[in-house]
């Protein structure tokens, strides 16, 4: 590296770069970033981290932690249901559901820019969906799991959101999938992942309805008998 009065030259990896005074000067792409007064900063500089990690990445991690905590609760209920003699339906399909869910979270982390703008109105709607999500979980109680179980003699839950819709859990999940990417302006991503999730959950709903059909029929007849 050499220098002259009023000018500095930089020799790096066979390329020569120069600057005058405090003008910006170029460094090798992807290895250094532009700096002032002729000083290069390595790509590993902490300031580079801030450009790749922002609010979308933080929210994705928080959602991952949330779903991990839910998985702990689901696993506990799963053990209790199995001990009580519950039978699992669609066991081989569960990895498809889990993988799709993780893919949605990963898409938010890796595909949405860290500097993406935020729609606070949509963010409020997403938070409201979380209230609905835990209304569902609270209503199902010990019967809530990520998997499909049926326990003979157990009642069909008809209170809470189940008074108004047969599958509120899946309705909330699909809405979340469309909405969270849209919070950061990634509407196309939300549409793609939402379409994938919808297809996955439609089949899971079919499996669940088939597994619960006999219990649901018995529950409906019992309800009609009580009304009579």
Q: What would you say this structure looks like, in words?
A:
There is one protein chain. The longest helix is centred in the C-terminal third of the chain and has 41 residues, at 187-227. The chain has helices at residues 46-50, 55-83, 94-111, 120-140, 168-183, 187-227, and strands spanning 3-4, 7-12, 15-20, 32-33, 41-42, 87-89, 148-150. It has a three-stranded antiparallel β-sheet with strand order 1-2-3, with no helix packed on it. A two-stranded antiparallel ribbon has the order 4-5. A two-stranded antiparallel ribbon has the order 6-7. Mean pLDDT is 83; it is low at 1-41. The chain has 228 residues and is mostly helical. Helix content is 57%, strand content 11%. The protein has two domains: 3-49, no CATH class; 52-227, Four Helix Bundle (Hemerythrin (Met), subunit A), CATH 1.20.120.
Looking at the overall shape, the CATH architecture of the largest domain is Up-down Bundle
Give the spatial strand order of the biggest sheet.
1-2-3
Shape: elongated
The SS-based structural class is mainly alpha
The largest pleated sheet is described as:
3 strands, antiparallel
How helix-rich are the residues, as a percent range?
Answer: 55-70%
Order of helices and strands: EEEEEHHEHHEHH
CATH fold-level label of the largest domain: Four Helix Bundle (Hemerythrin (Met), subunit A)
Unreliable stretches, pLDDT < 50, 5 or more residues?
1-41
CATH class call of the largest domain: Mainly Alpha
Query: End-to-end distance, in Å?
Result: 96 Å
- Domain module tally: 2
Whole-number mean pLDDT = 83
| Strand count | 7
Cα Rg: 27 Å
Strand content: 5-15%
